[in-house]
Amino acid sequence: MTESSTVDTPLKKLVGEKTAKALAGHLDLHTAGDLVYHFPRRYDERGEHTDIRSLDVGEQVTVLAQVQRTAVRPMRQRRGNLLEVTVGDGSGGTLTLTFFGNQAWRERELRPGRWGLFAGKVTEFRGKRQLNGPEYVLLGEGGEGEAAANEEVEEFAGALIPVYPAAAAVPTWVIAKCVRMVLDTLTPPADPLPATMRATRNLVGLDVALREIHRPSTKEALYRARRRLKWDEAFAVQVTLVQRKLRAADWPARPRPPKPDGLLAAFDARLPYELTGGQRDVGREIAADLGTAHPMHRLLQGEVGSGKTLVALRAMLQVVDAGGQAALLAPTEVLAAQHHRGIQELLGPLAQAGELGAAEHATRVELVTGSLGAAARRRALAEVAEGRAGIVLGTHALLYEGVDFADLGLVVVDEQHRFGVEQRDALRAKADQPPHVLVMTATPIPRTVAMTVYGDLEVSTLAQLPQGRSPIASHVVPAAEKPAYLDRAWRRLREEVAAGHQAYVVCPRIGEGPQSEEEAPKEDDTGRRPPLAVTEVAPLLAEGPLHGLRIGILHGKLPADEKDAVMRSFAAGELDVLVATTVVEVGVNVPNATVMIVLDADRFGVSQLHQLRGRVGRGSAAGLCLLVTEATEGTPARERLDAVASTTDGFKLAELDLEQRREGDVLGATQSGRRSHLRLLSLLRDADLIRDARAEAITLVEEDPELARHPALAASVAALVDEERAEYLEKG
């Protein structure tokens, strides 16, 4: 009789030491529980196509396909034959499998008509998609040379064939075999969900769900299994957020109520334009939060150019009026310096406390960055420590030891996704009592993401653009298919410069610079060239299509004073074109810049392109963004760019971005370097389930805040959202 196992049983006891080592090394799977929670990525059915045409070059794939024909030909460069096998997916898409060396047995095995799972890396040769020497397992009975595959074929006896997230050394059929071995011995785990909740929400038991998701008996059974396991994920996140929101309500903060005749009132009186309705509404929400004895924890999201910085500045002035200090943390020195200049200009004499001509309620605005000289740094830190600087702007240099505040009342984090959790928390820890926190992002967040990731934050949205902002037109420039379009793009840039405007050219890479020869990107094994680089493109443009124009370069490896000088020159109109990396992605504000050309646009993410595009059209003249790519029509990369070009609605693009990224990253897997635990839940498609899970979590946690009466559930929540991820959620 086979010995039974539990979710904690090491895999080496169940699948053998060699296989267990491969599962651990390549997929980070160590126990029976790890493996049964390694869910199939999708399910194939024989006769249904895998859509070979959608495969990306360089992607590691597993496809279900049928052998169409085979051909043997001699190799040109060396002795021996090459076997080429053409497989199809039923939709007209084909893939060539290539096997090197004399392998007559493989030709007999891979005969036309046979179905199989084929795994390997997609490459392209003379316009054809291919897999070189792929791993495979054939499905169905009979056939010479198939004895070795018979055991694996057992895993695919059902109508639905699970396809797992796999590795080259551990293909999907090996994982399926291991899962069967584990499930055959696994003692049914205790179900942590209360029986009443399972009945009310019509959820199947945990043991049934785990078995059916791997070896589904029917499509209906698979749907019910996935629904139960998605519920577990959603419920664990919501319980964690509700618990933390309740705990936060008990933390004391120093109230910073508005002052009717202070610095903020003086600032509002000197503003040369009216606030938008959205800015006024959000301003009232923030002002009310700042006036309470609980620390504000609010997310302010708004389109590029919607006026978030002005809203944040008004909040900072309210805190200064109440005797406190406010710190704004920016992701780059370029942006920190620009915030410093912009805020000083907006405040004018209100930022000149202690100077001749200062206004009655004035404060001081200090900039703290890593590149400050020793004397300037000592002076700035003294202003901050003694409380004379009411507003402090800086990069992560604000986090260092030696930067002390007299009374830190508000922390504003600009572009929060650019900072690690620990960095944000280090700044917050510089206050004697928990400060109020305002997190800003220009990447719009779909409602379900806000509900799941920021469930313990209040969310404010600025949807209205201020007056004077111009529309931005975006177009894809298919450089490989239509080189004349690229020539026209450079002419279009010259036309804008001739009309007195300026332009950005954005590249994905800095270039050789200080890199060694070995570190420079090489052509990868799919034949794709390295991404274009600022230091290589700028001289080519200066000698070629942009000859005679004043060109500057900007990237993250330039010394801080040089970066600042370049940005000042561009802002002053002394440069016509700025060739830059994504260092211009956030916050850079040059109203005279009207055109942006993004080279190798397919190498950027959706939200990144949307952010970049927001750098133009910031004045009275219309903006133009040209997305240059060699991606061909019909590929996912090209479809992504077409979508970006088709709309400036950041919320639509955020949903597209979410569909294309691993949604589990929202739980901090990327930040922590660990596997994400949101494996099934779709933040877009499962909005109703997330809403229901939140309602159940609120009811349960209000009755039993620490889940003392539900120890199994508390353990399950801790496993799905461990302390590290819980802290990540809490810190926003």
TrEMBL record:
Q: Where is this region: Disordered?
A: 510-530
Superkingdom, according to UniProt? Bacteria
Q: Where is the Helicase C-terminal domain?
A: 485-659
InterPro entries, A to Z: DEAD/DEAH_box_helicase_dom, Helicase_ATP-bd, Helicase_C-like, NA-bd_OB-fold, P-loop_NTPase, RecG/Mfd, RecG_dom3_C, RecG_wedge
In its UniProt record, a GO molecular function of this protein is: ATP binding
Pfam families linked: DEAD, Helicase_C, RecG_dom3_C, RecG_wedge
- A biological process term (GO) from this entry: DNA repair
Give the NCBIfam families listed for this entry. Answer: PRK10917.2-1
The name this protein carries in UniProt is Probable DNA 3'-5' helicase RecG
